[in-house]
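Hi L., both proteins are below.
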Amino acid sequence: LVEAVTKPEPPADLKTTADRDKFVAEAVGEALKREVLLMFASIEGPLKVLLVDTAMILAQHDHILNTVRDEVLRVSPTGPLTLDLLDQMRHLHALTMEVRRYFPIFALQYFRTAQDVTIAEYTVPKGWLVLSSIAAVHNDIALWTDPKKFDPARFEGDNSKEISPWTLLPHGGGETSSSHRCSGENVTTVLLKAVMVYLLREYEWTLEEEQVLDLDYTKIIPAPTSGVNVSIKKKEKEETEADD
């Protein structure tokens, strides 16, 4: 993020090196503040949808819910969360990865071609914008085994090693270190995990009946057609203590 901020040219009336360096440092600092605020503002909507999607899909798959809950209560049943604790929850990590595959954050994303590209019999010139359907890529049977099935296990162990960075596109494609990806990707993923840990520790939830939960792809952020109505309750104290 620091490297992405353009350093301004100091005014000519600043003669000393110290004054010029101070001007640049303050300008870069203000620019970084704006970038960080923009990043957090940009993840609010997608994060809310991902949280709803995760709660919804877990309510439909008891065995996955129980597996992840058992892991959470084993690794971090109470108290503050740390990144080290989250890193120990491999089932939770696989869940959040599969949620982002199964429920695309955006219906479309665009790329700019770095060189002339031939797709089938069509040539896309360098510099053109190309629209990509994330849902189409995430449901391509040539790229994913049984893509219509919600299966976090595809991101566990050796299975995850077979997944190309160009086949999972929730925040952009390619390697994180060298490709253009959303700056809020890691923050979104960590917050999604953290909120789910607190929910799985303390709450139970079920879906209300007669809902249309198919995703509406006419929305910028695809969401269930009818919205999601959930009955949620705090776990009984005796149950929580027993799990601890």
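That was the first. Here is the second:
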Amino acid sequence: MTDESDASSTSSSGSSSEEEVQAQPTKKQRTVPPPLEIAPTADAAHSAIQKQSASASIIGNTSNKSNRLIVLLDQAKLETIKNRKGNYELLNCDDHRDICKKKLKKDPKEFRPDICHQELLALLDSPLNKAGLLQVFIRTSRNVLIELHPSVRIPRTYKRFAGLMVQLLHKMKIKASDNGTTLMKVIKNPFSQHLPVGTRVYGMSCKGLLYSPHNLAKQLVPLDPNSTDEGQSQVCFIIGAMAAGHVTTEDHPYIEKMFSISEYPLSGASAINRILGSIENQWAIV
């Protein structure tokens, strides 16, 4: 009788100890992040995006989305390269001159990602963007298409900007740390499928038809951004972000006309400031 009670107590204590063991929380395994890969080419970016479900614009449904001015920065030199330490950097003419000449067999002067940086600061710092009336896209020289959220804050220094672009080109998107909002994302080509129906597209080039910024805004942009008139279409400007060359209708066959806003060659940032300033004046944005 005693043996049976001992056995039962032993079994009960054994089962309780097993329950205690099972009840103990399992230790979380430390996940090691995957190593960075080479920045995607146009084909790699296209295939990676196709695997994802077709998602809406990162801007979402806003009340004045249909009245936004759309700007595409074209032919931006945003490419990554692996340095001697095994880290990836944004390819540029200052730090990688020998690589451009010997390995890539290209002119180092072509690799100017700082031009895109300057133009983004001009666009996103503008009162037009702060009023919620601007939508920005980037198309790189490798045909990678990027969409930016209006609330994104581009780093002021080039070094931090370069690090952000390397992260974007490898991870395909950048999210805000506080609320998870997607601030920058690689999206599917072609660019024309992201334009609202009826959008009128114009290219900017020093070889285009000369207009003053005031007359350009008056002729092309609706007088009122809040107008619901069906005769007023949304407008898109394509502006170059490269060191040499022009925006062409061969790359963008949907361009209606090419325009210029000065008799003199201007930097991209300077041209953007003139164009946006005239539109802000027309829309009474101070």
